[in-house]
Every structure is written in C-alpha cells, then in structure tokens.
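Sample intake — DMT family transporter
Collected from: Thauera sinica
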Amino acid sequence: MNSSGHHLKADLMLVFTTFIAAAGWIFSKEALGGLPPLLFIGLRFVLAGLVLAVFAVPQLRALDRRGLCRGFLIGTLFACAITLWILGLQHTRHLGESSFIASLGIVLVPVFARLFFGERPPASTWAALLPALAGFACLSLAHGFRVEPGQWFFLGAAVVFALLFNVNSHVVRNVPVLVLSTLQMLVVGLLVLPTALWFERWPEQVPAAALGWLVASALIATTLRFLLQLYGQSLTTPSHAAVILMLEPVWTAIAAAWWFAETMTGLQLAGCALIFAALLISRWNWVRGLFKGRPG
C-alpha cells in the first residue's frame, strides 16, 4: 500500500477509535446503574488487562524487573486518574460537557512538561490556556456560579492524565506499548478492587444489563479501542494521531444527546466550544500541517 493509502487507513482507524471511546462513556454510565463505581472500574480493567495479556505473553515474559517497576508506577498513576474519572461520571448530570472538561488534560500536557521536565513548549500552548479556562468557567457558570462535584472530579482526572502522559513519555521508554498498557490495566484492577471492597457496599445481586455494560466497557471500549488505536498510530505520526483523537469529546456529546436526550444551554455550548478551540490551539502546528496535507 502506498503512503497516501496508509494515511487514509490510519485516519479511518483512528476516527473509528474515537467513536468507540465516545461509546465507552455511554457504556460506563449505564453500568453505574447497577454497579458501584470502584467495583465497576476494577472489574473492567482486570478483564481488559487479562484479554490484552493474551496478545502480550511473549513480551511479558521478556520484561525485566526494572520494566515491571516502571509499569507499576504508570499503572498507579493511571489508577488515580481513572478513579477520579469514574467518580466524576457517577456524579455528573451532563455527559457531554464532562467529556470536554476531561479533555483539558491534552492542554495541560505541555504545561506539565515545562513545570516538571524543563521542556519549552511552543507559544500556542500558553495561548490555549486562556480559552480553556474561559470554557471551564462557562461550564461552571451554567450551574449558577458554582463548580459541581462531578466537574471537580473530571478536572482532577485531567490533571493526573496530563502528569501520566509526561511520566509515560520520560520515564518509560523501553517498555513495549502493548506490555505497558497491559500492566497499566492490571495494576488498576489490583489497586482499585481492594479499595472498592473497603469503601463500597457491593450489591447482593447485579442486574444482567449492568453486567452486559461491564463486558462491553471492558472488551469494546477498552480492549478493542486500544488495539485499534495502537494499529492506527503505527500507520501515521503521533502528532497526526493526536489531532484526530481530539474528536472524542465531540462524539461523546453527540452520543449523549442521542442516548440520554441531553441538551445544552447557550453557556454550556460556548464553554465546550472554547475548550475545543483550546485543544486545537494547543496543537496548532499539527493542525496546520493536517490541513496542508502533511501527516504531522
């Protein structure tokens, strides 16, 4: 296949990945109707990690102690981020706006790179902060001059995800991506499930529908999503892939409007638009290259 064919295949694969990611928000929200949040997230990632481990057996066997420790570090950060995310999902009253708040982590990645690793991000990074903050303010004002608990949880998740991305890029360099992802998911389960046992009251009987949403979350929104994303990213550059993956909050808002009949006020729409503008500004060099026909 020629270069343009590879790029088209990568684009289609990554766009489909964002569809699956958006569906994952719906799957998870539905599952919370019959499962406590920590129990759900622990089971989801244990199941997904075990499935991914089947594909990564040779690489897992070759992993040394140093790689295992680094994988555990990344998994611990991921467990913190995903715990904040699922608590936000439990408390949110509006899935669409929440997905945009969670996406603020993309804007914060280069900021954290500057603060903790001494990198010098482009000027577009700092220019993106103003619309990002303005967007979050609009979403907060839409609820009567207050930040709701779900918004705080999603904002916290965005901060930890931004830190996780930087640690992932600077600390874990020699661990294969599939192995690292498998370890991340298994560590989430190992850390979150005992926490769920300690803090949550587990139901005596789980509705069949909730179990179905759990399986869909684990196998489709986690395992399948990761495998497709990994394959799509292998066909293009990381910068090009990052621009396409920013579509996730857009599809999530559309899916929430369709599935839950969510609507947005003018202020909420303005807030989401400002945050999406911040995402584009923070990756402006890549976006400009995309429209000029370059892959990144």
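Post-analysis note: The longest helix spans residues 3-31.
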